[in-house]
Amino acid sequence: xxxxxxxxxxxxxxxxxxxxxxxxxxxxxxxxxxxxxxxxxxxxxxxxxxxxxxxxxxxxxxxxxxxxxxxxxxxxxxxxxxxxxxxxxxxxxxxxxxxxxxxxxxxxxxxxxxxxxxxxxxxxxxxxxxxxxxxxxxxxxxxxxxxxxxxxxxxxxxxxxxxxxxxxxxxxxxxxxxxxxxxxxxxxxxxxxxxxxxxxxxxxxxxxxxxxxxxxxxxxxxxxxxxxxxxxxxxxxxxxxxxxxxxxxxxxxxxxxxxxxxxxxxxxxxxxxxxxxxxxxxxxxxxxxxxxxxxxxxxxxxxxxxxxxxxxxxxxxxxxxxx
Length: 323
Prior knowledge:
Elements: H1 3-21, H2 23-26, E1 35-39, H3 46-62, E2 66-70, H4 77-84, E3 92-97, H5 98-107, E4 118-126, E5 131-132, H6 141-150, E6 155-159, H7 165-177, E7 181-185, H8 189-198, E8 203-204, H9 210-214, E9 219-220, E10 250-256, H10 262-276, H11 279-286, E11 290-291, H12 297-318
Parallel strand pairs: 1-2, 1-3, 6-7
Antiparallel strand pairs: 3-10, 4-10, 4-11, 5-8, 5-9
């Protein structure tokens, strides 16, 4: 059975059980004030763009404001620590991609144990790809490879920070191809995007670039997903471009601090899956390059565990280190 089918068949039963078993809790006062969704990167970046429609949807679903709070810096570690140390009463959660709960914890010595976060809900699979400034003069991935080989050291790749998923995508490309492309880390994806649009750097690999691709300001060379993305049907996958086993996929999750009540996590998980199943939500997420996923807390935990293991193996094989 395919993973997608497995998720769909098991989530429905899990959600029904949760809602039935938590009916009494559902009548309680939670949430009794605005709920903070801490995003560890600046406004305008890929995580922020996904978080804001989710905050709006959850606000409508629960009748209380879910508010995005950007706590950027240190490759997301500042926001992660703020969420981790918050009071576990169901009014503060971490909204992050697997950068925050997989790649950064594997590459940095942190003041917290990210594995103690409480998984609450899977918020979708991100879509991105290597995006280049048109001033470079290339339009396809093959042309990009040829240019990079003939012009070592002339291309600069901007990311949302050291140890983030975009950084790992750059490292994997360099590892697989031997290209000489400098990595320029920024405080967040919004800042690197500004420099890409200005031509100060030439490459990025973040979802925040895609609206500018549609506007004709940037060129998308590939997508980092197993299959092509409906919004860009003519853009090939990295595997189709001849770079196999190099995809560093991204996905988003909602996490509570250690000690978050199980009842609250269960109610949120059920509501997130309900929203994710709506056809209109698929269109909403496509606009921010995100693909809805339905997953129980247990399934999300497994996805997290598998990604942790696979990313650790990639980091070791590619010799990726934070200097």
